[in-house]
Design a protein that fits this description.
3 helices; elongated; GMP Synthetase, Chain A, domain 3; 80 residues; three-stranded mixed sheet; alpha+beta
């Protein structure tokens, strides 16, 4: 029997060609989240993790370590 609590898995991704100054001029955070969520439930790798009860946190940052966005997806987001 699986616990109702999910196990965390954190990814940290760096946008290697973007700085904090460029980020302020380019609202990319919503686009990153939309793209990630739009395909997550069809991605076999993510589905496998969600079925195992794993919660994903994906953090995007700029090359100078400014956080762009933090996206948390839980198994129930995809019906698991």
């Amino acid at each position: 029997m699986r616990s109702s609590r999910s196990v965390p898995l954190d990814y940290f991704l760096t946008l290697t060609r973007m700085t904090k100054a460029q980020l302020d001029a380019d609202p990319i955070a919503k686009q990153l989240e939309s793209n990630l969520r739009g395909g997550a439930c069809q991605n076999p790798n993510y589905v496998k993790l969600f079925k195992a009860g794993i919660r994903l946190t994906i953090t995007y940052q700029t090359q100078d370590q400014a956080e762009v966005t933090r996206i948390v997806m839980v198994p129930k987001d995809c019906g698991f």
